[in-house]
Model the fold of this input.
Amino acid sequence: GVSMRIAPLGALFAHTAPPSKLLRVVVEDAAITHNHPDAIYAAFAVALAVAHAVRERRTGVLGYALRVLADTAASTRSKRLMQRLSELNFELTRGTQPASLFDADDAIGISAMALYIVDATGSYEDAVTTAIRMGGDTDTRAAIVGAITGAAYGLEAIPEPWFQGIESREQLIGLDSVLSTHAKRMGEFTP
Done:
C-alpha cells in the first residue's frame, strides 16, 4: 500500500519542506491507489517518521508523528489513527508493551505498530525481526520498519549477511546519494 512505498518522499522532503507540503505530496502519491483518509494519514505518519529519522538520525518517531498529525486534519479525518498512535505512545512513555502487539492488517494498524516497533527496539535488526515475528502482513510492516530504522541508523546498521545475494547491490546503495542530490536541488519545492 501507500504506507509501504512512501518512505522515499519522507526522505526527499526531510530538509526541504514543512509537514504541510509533505502532506500535499503524500496525498498526491496516495491518490494513485488509495483515497481513503485512513490510508492517506497512515502514509503521512510514515513519511513524517522517515523525515524525522533523516533529520535527527535517531528514533522517537511515534511521538513526533503524533504531535505533527494533531496539528493537521488527521485529528478529525482519521480519528482511529490518532487514537491508536496515542495508545502506543502512552505505552512507550510508560515503558510497557501494548496488551496486543498485533494490530489489524490495515493501513492504520500496520503503520501505527511500525512506528511503535521502531521506537521500542534499539537496532535495525531488532526492529525488522520484531516486525516479521508479529505475523500477519509482515512484508508491509517490515518494509515500513526497515525504511524508518534505516533512515535513523544508516546503512551501516543493516547486518551484512542481509545484503548477500541482492542483485545490483552497489546500484541500490548508491541511490541514497542520488536522493540526497535531488533533495538539495529541490530546495523550496512547492507541489
About this structure: The chain is about 70% helix and 0% strand. Residues 39 and 106 are 8 Å apart (CA to CA). The mean pLDDT is 87. The radius of gyration is 16 Å.
